[in-house]
Amino acid sequence: MTSVFRGIDWATDHHDIALLDETGTLLAKLRIDDSPEGLAQFLDLLARHGDNPDNLIPVAIETSHGLLVARLRATSRPIYVINPLTAARYRDRYALSRKKSDHLDAKVLAHILRTDPAEHRPLPADSHLAQAITVLARAQQDAVRDRVQTGNRLRSHLREYFPAFLTVFRHFREDLASSVSRTLLAAAPTPTQAAQLTRPQLRSILKKAGRQREITGEIERLYDLLREPQMHQPPLVEDATGTKTQALLRQFNAACASADELEATVVDAFTTHEDAEIITSFPGLGHLTGARVLAELGDDHTRFATARALKAYAGSAPITRSSGRKTTVLARHIKNQRLASAGYNWAFAALTASSGARAHYDHRRAAEERHVAAQRNLFNRLLGCLHHCLTHHIPYDEQTAFPDTA
């Protein structure tokens, strides 16, 4: 049982450290920079206060990222990540005047660890591969968001002078993100230039975009649509808007390329993980969505002691508020937003991939639940099955997951 507790208030260029004993007495304080020398000073301070491989001093910090956290994780010591809002509320217990300093924040974090360790969980012992998948999956998810935002800016700009272009590829699943849309827009960014494209030029554009089938029919469709009468901006204004379109298109192309490259990389990493086969055995979980799920769960199967804890973390389990005679059941808003987003896609895809999932969803809808609530309930059910399968190292089984509908 440790008798020393450590809090770290991290910052961009320095970190404040406070060491307390079990009575709350300050044993030492230190400020280090984010460098090997700073880490060496820190570890030397810990060693002087009894830190050793058999008795590692735990640490409380407000972030789970960064070089300092990575080096501390390498020592296998318990690292407790404290929510900044929680730390701010604890601060009032030790400073009624509401004063604030980096040293005080470090002390507060150490006090949290000293007084309420059971209320907080240490960082999971994820493998390096799982940590790498987390970095890649989150980067890919951010790249997709950037692609959507950039595409929306481009779409909004086209509506101002070239709305007919938006109808040309409305039937495409990728819409503006399709290679044909982007290649055509790069060749003819204004309605005047688009109307002047010849059939041979359209054929060249389609081949450059990678189109291989039904090229002749697509050429005729584009040739007719781009020549339909439409309103125009004045020539100088149209040329200027076309120049702006090319600038936005370059940003959009970069966003599309980043999302595609990261998707390929994260899928490659995910398929080498030992949990990938179990995760992708679930209906609706492909390699990309499965990688996002693994990225947020990690591969430390002791992280969530029960399926209920996992469901609360993902936000699929409702939250109950009870006071006196009044009890209210609400959707959980404090959750892992990335996992919840992946879960929405997972549950939606499972509706067509699993008859049991479809029957479960239809049953909830028949009970007059809204679509979002029924889909969240399905995600909740699937998460419980996933926790069981990962814990016991077994693949998904439809009859076990939905025995009442199989």
Task: Characterize this entry briefly.
With 406 residues, the chain is of the alpha/beta class.
Q: What is this structure's SSE topology?
A:
Elements (H helix, E strand, L loop, with lengths): L3 E7 L3 E8 L4 E8 L2 H13 L10 E3 L5 H8 L4 E3 L2 H11 L7 H14 L12 H34 L1 H6 L10 H9 L3 H5 L3 H10 L6 H11 L9 H37 L4 H5 L6 H11 L9 H8 L4 E5 L2 E5 L6 H17 L1 H12 L4 H22 L5 H4 L5
Parallel strand pairs: 1-4, 4-5
Antiparallel strand pairs: 1-2, 2-3, 6-7
Report the order of strands and helices.
EEEHEHEHHHHHHHHHHHHEEHHHH
**Compute the gyration radius: what is it?**
28 Å
Query: Which structural category do the helix and sheet elements fall into?
Result: alpha/beta
Envelope shape:
globular
- Please give the largest β-sheet: 5 strands, mixed
The beta-strand count equals 7
Cross-sheet strand order for the largest sheet: 3-2-1-4-5
Portion in helices:
55-70%
Poorly predicted ranges: none
* Beta content: 5-15%
**Annotation field: number of helices:** 18
Distance between the termini: 50 Å
Oligomer: single chain
Look at the structure and give the mean pLDDT: 89
